[in-house]
Amino acid sequence: MLEKYLKDIWIFPRERLPYLQPGIAWVLFEGSGGVYTVDWMVQAATDRIQAKIKKHQHDNIRTQYALDEFDLLCSQCDEAILHNTPIRTVGFGFNELADEVELALGSAPKVFDRIFLFHPYENTQAVQVFR
Fold first, then answer.
1. Residues 44, 49, 51, 54: is their CA dihedral positive or negative?
2. What distance in Å separates the CA atoms of residue 68 and residue 47, rounded to the nearest whole number?
3. CA 73 → CA 81, 101, 103, 126, 129, distances in Å?
4. Which one of 37, 46, 78, 112 is at 20 to 30 Å from 88 when CA atoms are compared?
5. 53, 107 in Cβ contact below 8 A?
6. Contact between residue 115 and residue 74 where contact means Cβ atoms under 8 Å apart
7. Does the predicted model carry a pTM greater than 0.85?
8. Which of 69, 87, 85, 67 is nearest to 127 (CA)?
9. Regarding beta strands 115-118 and 72-75, do their DSSP bridges make them parallel or antiparallel, or are they unpaired?
């Protein structure tokens, strides 16, 4: 029965979840909200990246700090994993999310040289979505 319904188990050290107080349930399940769609996952990731592009669009950071390269790493931290829209659903996962974000960023202004999505608990932890 477990093989049929259980996809993953993630075990975190208690110190990585400092917001869990004594007496609070320590077994947590992903996606505790209602229903969600793949479009929401893609839109959430794209919105965050677009906000970073807008924030740095006129900063001229590359010149200001004499950088050869200016990249953006979008990391899915533990708290985001527990509280945001899950990135997995039937037939859709981290790699598919990266593909969709890459398509959505196709016409984005060239503020960053490269943009990466990072998820510490996926088999492929980082995927480049913008060149």
1. negative
2. 26
3. 16, 13, 17, 9, 10
4. 112
5. no
6. yes
7. no
8. 87
9. parallel
Give the span between the Cα atoms of 101 and 130, in whole angstroms.
9
Helices first, then strands: H and E counts in the chain: 5, 3
- Select from 59, 46, 60, 64 the least CA-distant residue to 108: 46
Q: Could you report the per-residue pLDDT of 70-119, keeping only the tens digit for each? A: 999 998 776 776 666 777 777 888 899 999 999 999 888 889 999 999 98
CA distance 30 to 92: 15
Over its C-alpha atoms, the chain yields an Rg (Å, rounded) of 17
CA dihedral 53, 69, 65, 112 (to 10 degrees): 0
Locate 55 and state its tokens.
Answer: 């924030």
Work out whether strand 115-118 and strand 126-130 pair parallel, antiparallel, or are unpaired: antiparallel
46 phi and psi angles, rounded to 5 deg: -65, -40
Q: Please answer whether residues 120 and 102 qualify as being in contact, where contact means their C-beta atoms are separated by less than 8 angstroms.
A: no
